[in-house]
Amino acid sequence: MLKIAPSILSADFAALGAEVERVDTAGADYIHIDVMDGRFVPRITIGSDVVKALRRHTKKTFDVHLMVEQPENQIDAFADAGADFISFHVEAVKHGHRIVQAIHGHGLKAAIALNPGTPAVMVEPYIDDVDMILVMTVNPGFGGQKFISLTLKKIRQIREMITASGRPIELEVDGGINADTAKLVVDAGADVLVAGSAVFGEKNLSEAIRSIRIA
Ligand code: DX5
Ligand code: ZN
Fold first, then answer.
1. CATH of the domain at 142
2. If you count Cβ atoms within 10 Å of the first and of the last residue's Cβ in the chain, which end, N or C, has fewer?
């Protein structure tokens, strides 16, 4: 079943609680939360205290995407804040399995994220352990960028690896997803679609979510 994960990066930051409620009511499956540290990517966005405050506003799954250096230092805080999934970038870590274990130790789901330039083979060492694989379809750092179609081949390759593993791993894509690109990534094997500007940039959030879902 296809899941839609609106990214609150494109929401009104002065009213995040209300924005989360609005997108919950509009039919979001997961709430995607983009955490940036100003080092792994240029911007600084949302910290664990904000996530903790948002937790009161919805029961939906919190899908926390860490775009940070040394994500191992953030796991406890985001677990405590109420994350359900925590994803970290393979490009940012030296001891990835230890981080997966730390996430699982909190009873949460662990995901690895790959930049557009990172090859599918980087997934292999994690295939027995992770619950989700996040393929970035833009370079992380900003909302509203153009989808990089070269990533479609990698989505297909990772879908094959997941099928071969026989494990229930979700395949999430993030960046430049709208009703048009949704068709392409779903066809390539994605089953969780992150969308920021294509949801929060529209007046009617449920219409926006629906148009991506039926793509
Ligand atoms: C980009 C973030 C994305 C971003 C997607 O670094 O990881 O989650 O919010 O925004 P859109 O859907 O506008 O490309
Ligand atoms: Zn993201």
1. 3.20.20.70
2. N
Question: How many domains is the chain partitioned into structurally?
Answer: 1
Cβ atoms 83, 108 nearer than 8 A: yes
Express each pLDDT in 140-180 by its tens digit. Answer: 999 999 999 999 999 999 999 999 999 999 999 999 999 99
Give the range of the structural domain holding residue 179, as residue numbers without chain letter: 3-213
Ligand 1 centre from 60 Cα, in Å? Answer: 19
User: Cα(106)–Cα(112) distance, rounded to whole angstroms?
Assistant: 16
Q: Is 143 in the pocket of ligand 1 (CB under 6 A)?
A: yes
As a dihedral over the C-alpha atoms of residue 103, residue 109, residue 115, residue 117, rounded to 10 degrees, the angle is 100
23 ligand 1 Cβ < 6 A? no
Q: Residue 139: nearest ligand to its CA?
A: 1
The answer, yes or no, to whether any atom of ligand 1 lies below 6 A from the CB of 11, is no
Read off the pTM.
0.98
Distance CA 154, CA 149 (A): 10
> Does residue 11 contact residue 31 with C-beta atoms inside 8 Å?
no
